[in-house]
Amino acid sequence: MPMQSPTWLKRAWPQLLVLLLILPLNAIVSPGFFNITLQDGRLFGSVIDILNRGAPVALLTLGMTLVIATRGIDLSVGAVMAIAGAVAATSVNAGHSAFVSVMFALAAGLGCGLWNGLLVAALQIQPIVATLILMVAGRGIAQLIAEGRIVTFVDPHLISLGGGSLFGFPMPFIIVLIAAAITAILVRLTALGLFIEAVGVNAKSSRLAGVNTHATLIFVYIWSGLLAALAGVIAAADIRGADANNAGLWLELDAILAVVIGGTSLLGGRFALSLALVGALTIQALKTGILRAGFPPEFNLIVMAVAVAVVLCLQSPALAALWKRR
Amino acid sequence: MIDRNLPALVTLAIFVVAYAICAAQFPSILSLRVVGNLLTDNAFLGILAVGMTVVVVSGGIDLSVGAVIAFTGVLIALTVGHAGMHPLAAFALVLSIAALFGAGVGAAIHYLQAPPFIVTLMAMFLARGTCFLLTNDSIPIRHNFYSTLESISIPFPGGGKLSFIAMLMLITVAIGALLLHYTRFGANVFSLGGNRQSAELMGVPIARTTILVYCFSSVMAALAGIVFSVYTQAGYSLAAVGVELDAIAAVVIGGTLLSGGAGNMLGSLVGVLIQGLILTYITFDGTLSSWWTKIAIGFLLFVFVALQKLLVHLPELRSKRGFA
Q1: How far is CA B69 from the centre of its chain?
Q2: Could you list the residue range(s) of the whole structural domain that residue A55 is in?
Q3: Which of these, A302, B120, B186, B310, has the minimum number of CB atoms within 10 Å of its CB?
């Protein structure tokens, strides 16, 4: 289990090193980076901002980690975000309460996840193609629900999911904490985590060993869909509107990057939720740092590319073999 | 032979049927003018699909091609428009940069043993980011040579024409098909995608083939970028966002397995044309909203993938029942 400290630290050093390099760099380019002020019972500051802005990707990352651990990939999460946002916005405008609207959005996410899971588990379609279908069609479906418009809403409860705060922390961050806790309990305190890793290492032999591979696969895609729907609701609440075209656009790539930066192999098997979250934080810290430093956001992509290159080199088996030889 | 090409043949049959249905509703869709436009409008996607087919058959994926198109357009616009370079020199420059870029991507995939998905994602960030660094504006390309390229065309009887970029696309697809299906390089690509380990044991040069595959894909993307710049007469750093997905969808619809090892170059062309046909139909109809395109393409992807599964599993089922 990755939570045991010595082995955890042994595995985690490349990720932690990159994050620990980026944070001081941020402080250098923008003095006052670590300042946190308390205003009207709410914390403000760049670090808090990273936790707040990074919430949607962090949620996607939690689901993506489990999917990737089964040797899969979920390209549809960005589109699912758009669908969930459109569902929540139209339902709250139709007079339903915020709670019911969020439930509708989660149900939509569950449906999307179930679709992906059935394609992968029952029809045995490669995950990348199976989820590509919903990635392409999903944004069209979201536009269909929103009737091609940006659906704005004024419901204060729904808006508070994106802009509100609890115990001084921004609401999205609290939601991520809760989601991470539930996910960790599900996979680490039950045998589910073991099943997921078994399916990722060798689906056939785990099935022969009595693991219900179909149920395991369907579960991870449903979980990913649910978390993506939650992320979609937060993203919509944040801008007080559902934008079917741009909500969650390319965020699936950020989430996949976060998982890979977090050291979970795309080839499945062993996974680390906490490290994937560190990966999501790293990506957001990079983006915030670039903005704070006054660079145009165009630098984002180049810096991200360099960061990924560094992590890839650090994790490369070829390099590891070179280290061992010495 | 027929078995291997069955998915592509099914795709072709579906394309013909779909075209017939469209023609039944809008007879003018049969006119050569529409056919010419279909080829011209999808020329860059067709060239992109040639590179993508080779990558996918090798068992990889290339997410960087859309960004390479944008980079090509921006670089041509800057060198021709601002530096006064001749377009042909700019083409040579951009194709050689793309070749080096692709070779780098392939080398990273092979020597770092990193997944193609992540490495090409990084390459996409790098290419798109470089575009943004160069310029944020859409720069028009005005040059006599571009007007000449535009004027080269074969007129069809009854209006319409086969434009230069459509011809270039058809030639590229033909060369791509020869390369993939009738050369040693193509055979290496197929065996690499089929089973890497046995390919290595059979003496297929894995490193060289991997590097060449991604090099080829980037060069095709740059060629598609040149075609795109002729088509739009401009270079723009936000051009062709998400086009890699259209190319992948075309390749899958065309009957190439995303797991590698099986595929058909001409099928990919039909995949491109099917996507173009959906767009043409929506334009003709006029009342359908553009989002139906995405839903239709998603649905088609599902149909083709399910069909492929069926084709692969049918022999197994038959043998289980003892008919084989």
Answers
A1: 11
A2: 47-289
A3: B310
Residue pair B140/B82 in contact (Cβ under 8 Å)? The answer is no
> The domain that contains A261 carries what CATH number?
1.10.3470
Q: Hey, what are A278's tokens?
A: 């560190």
Q: Tell me the per-residue pLDDT of B16-41, one tens digit each, with 9 for 90 and over.
A: 988 888 888 888 888 888 888 889 99
* Complete DSSP assignment for B43-74: HHHHHHHHHHHHHHHTT-----HHHHHHHHHH
- In one-letter notation, the amino acid at residue A267 is L
pLDDT value at residue A77 = 93
Distance CA A173, CA A69 (A): 24
β-strand pairing of A241-242 with B161-163: unpaired
pLDDT digits (tens, 9 = 90+) for A85-113: 999 999 888 888 888 999 999 999 999 99
The average pLDDT across B148-174 equals 86
Chain A residues with CB under 8 Å of B112 CB are 312-313, 316, 318-319
Find where tokens 């449903």 sit.
Answer: A222
Higher pLDDT, A2 or B257: B257
Q: Is residue A29 predicted with pLDDT exceeding 80?
A: no
The answer for residues whose C-beta is within 8 angstroms of residue B124's C-beta and 6 or more apart is B63, B64, B66, B67, B244
Instruction: Please tell me the predicted confidence (pLDDT) of residue A1.
Output: 41
Give pTM, 2 decimals: 0.85
Sign of the alpha-carbon torsion through B310, A118, B291, B54: negative
How far is C-alpha A144 from the geometric centre of its chain's CA atoms? Answer: 25
Are B127 and B68 contacting, i.e. CB atoms less than 8 angstroms apart?
A: yes
Return the H-helix or E-strand segment holding A42. strand A42-45
A110 lies in some domain: yes
Give me the total of CB pairs closer than 8 Å, taking one residue from chain A and one from chain B.
120
Report the C-alpha gap between A247 and B251 in whole angstroms. Answer: 27
Q: In whole numbers, what is the pLDDT of chain B averaged over residues?
A: 86
Residue B29, classified by CB atoms within 10 Å of its CB into exposed (0-12), middle (13-18) or buried (19+), is buried
d(CA B266, CA B179): 12
Per-residue pLDDT at B299: 87
Chain A interface residues facing chain B, Cβ-Cβ under 8 Å? 73, 119, 123-126, 128-130, 132-141, 143-144, 148, 244, 253, 256-257, 260, 266-267, 296, 298-302, 304-305, 308-309, 312-313, 316-319
Of how many residues is chain A composed? Answer: 326
- Whether A145 maps to a domain, the answer reads yes
Distance (Å, whole) CA B276 – CA B293: 10
Q: Which residues of A touch B61 (CB under 8 A)?
A: 128
- The count of structural domains within chain A is 1
In this structure, is residue A17 part of a structural domain?
no
Alpha-carbon distance of A130 to A123, in angstroms, equals 9
Residue-wise pLDDT tens digits, A197-250: 888 888 888 888 888 888 899 999 999 999 999 999 999 998 888 888 788 788
Distance from the B70 Cα atom to the nearest Cα atom in chain A, whole angstroms: 14
Of the CA atoms within 13 Å of residue A243, those in its CB half-sphere come to: 11
Write down all domains in chain B, each with its CATH number in brackets. Answer: 2-321 (1.10.3470)
Contact call for residues B165 and B38 (beta carbons, < 8 A): no
CB contact under 8 A, A302 and B130: yes
Cβ atoms within 10 Å, residue B184: 9
- The overall longest dimension of chain B from CA atoms, in Å, is 72
Asked if A225 and A80 touch (Cβ cutoff 8 Å), the reply is yes
Tokens of B75: 């670089």
Is A254 part of a structural domain of the chain?
yes
Q: How far away is chain A from the Cα of B297, in angstroms, using its nearest Cα?
A: 7
